[in-house]
Design a protein that fits this description.
Length: 285
């Protein structure tokens, strides 16, 4: 007899696609298990017109999903790792991540504009780094799922915007009418903490059961990034960023601009904590 697991997720097209990827992964690796999705509407989904930066984005896209896990309506909660607050609610822990998708950002501009000036983005991180590429850039807020944003761009809402490559890839979008896509290098735009990673959250008592099922390299990398974010007191709408890949930690911060640090793979948690705290201290002084 197969075991049934309930996976809680947001209802957006991208969130459902990501939950389907987790479902496929679990059912492939555990043949005697089948999964069902529990789609939920979060506070962030309801408040479509507010500025996440001004009103505080912490937990807006995760609270209802985590509550379903805590109340045992669900066995696992599926999140975009970059949406997660740095601290888990009491009783919950991150079990792991699927193998990370491309973490890069993509510059999407109107095809009839060669030098974009008006950028649609509500992300402080993206605004800070766009200014280093386009010093005369101006900004306006931007909310909505990927398809909504692309449609707004095609209709002339702004000259350009920035979207995550991972979301575009998962939805199979590589082009759009009247728009030009250009993937930005890590040096041009350091990704958000956790960008490209799908996080799987569980109750504390289930960690040992679920952790071995997921990707250890992504767990190591995103753990470093989340520790960096927490050390600087940032949330998912911070104006700085950190991305770890195969021994190199890429950082963008207004104080130092773009910088890289060497962090060996497979270090102990205490060693990582010490290194990250030293980096954070230099940025706080």
């Amino acid at each position: 007899m197969k075991s049934k697991w309930i996976l809680a997720t947001r209802k957006s097209p991208l969130a459902l696609k990501q939950a389907e990827l987790v479902k496929e992964h679990l059912e492939k690796n555990l043949p005697h298990t089948f999964c069902e999705l529990l789609g939920l509407v979060t506070t962030g989904d309801k408040l479509k017109e507010i500025s996440l930066e001004k009103n505080g984005g912490k937990g807006l896209f995760t609270k209802e999903i985590e509550e379903a896990l805590l109340s045992r309506q669900a066995d696992l909660a599926i999140h975009s790792a970059k949406d997660l607050p740095t601290e888990n609610p009491e009783g919950l822990v991150i079990a792991g991540y699927l193998k990370r998708e491309d973490p890069s950002d993509v510059l999407i501009s109107r095809s009839d504009i060669t030098h974009p000036k008006l950028f649609a983005t509500g992300s402080p991180r993206r605004r800070e780094q766009i200014r280093t590429i386009f010093p005369e850039a101006e900004f306006k807020g931007f909310r909505g799922n990927i398809h909504t944003r692309l449609e707004k761009m095609a209709n002339g809402d702004a000259d350009a915007t920035i979207l995550a490559a991972a979301g575009l890839n998962r939805l199979g979008i590589s082009e759009y009418q009247n728009l030009t896509f250009r993937k930005l290098s890590i040096k041009e735009m350091v990704p958000a903490v956790g960008q490209g990673a799908i996080a799987i959250q569980c109750r504390n008592e289930d960690f040992e059961k679920f952790y071995p099922l997921f990707d250890p390299k992504t767990f190591y990398a995103v753990s470093i990034e989340r520790l960096f974010l927490a050390s600087l007191g940032g949330g998912c709408h911070a104006g700085f960023s950190g991305y770890y890949h195969e021994g190199t930690f890429f950082v963008y911060h207004q104080k130092i601009g773009y910088q890289t640090y060497n962090i060996e793979e497979n270090l102990s948690p205490n060693s990582i904590k010490s290194i990250i705290e030293d980096i954070a201290q230099t940025l706080s002084d």
